[in-house]
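DM from R.C. (forwarded with permission)

"hey, sorry to bug you on a friday — could you get me a structure for this? deadline for the figure draft is monday and I only need the backbone to look sensible"
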Amino acid sequence: MNLKDLGNLPRSQKIILLALIFIVLIGGFVYFIFLPGKAEFDALKTSVNELNQKINTNEVKLRRLEELKVENMQLQSQLAMLQAQLPMEQEVSSLLKQVSDLSIESGLEVKLWKPGARKKDSSGMYLEIPVDVEVSGGYHSLASFFDRISKLPRIVNITNLNMDGAKVSGGGTSIQNKFVATTFSAVIEGTEDLPDSKKVKKKEKESPEAR
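My reply, with the result:
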């Protein structure tokens, strides 16, 4: 069929033929151009969304990182302040003697002064140094002693307080007091893995004269 024959076709057939040609052209455009382009567009859009999500996630992580840095600096500052209150091991004996002296200055009579085994706390950053103490004296003397302990620049905790055996003598009441005085020592670098028995030679004192 040539163009001359097409010109002789009835009008209705011409319209149908043109419609078929239009449909073929549209179909070719959709199949060969639009669909591949749309698939590429969708893939690119997905990649962009994933990239934006990663960017948002990283921005959140970055903000969290900055928050963690600030928090870490605050914790480091608090740790430094606490460590300043912890004596080194060579200072512990002087601190314990100071505590014993305070008990005597407060009017208490020391019946027992027995350092216990030192142990490292769960964080491994300091040693706990307990001392079993037994003193006798009045309520006022004991309160004065505890008040002086609380004002020491170093940390000394008083626990397991037991008060009994009140006796009246010399116009006053004397009470037997038992408690554990615990101080803390910073762990010296390089000795963390040594047993406590090798790091510290325990000294037991049964009376104030043993000091």
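R.C.: lifesaver. Residues 89-210 form a domain with the Alpha-Beta Plaits fold (CATH 3.30.70.60).
me: no worries. The longest strand covers residues 172-186.
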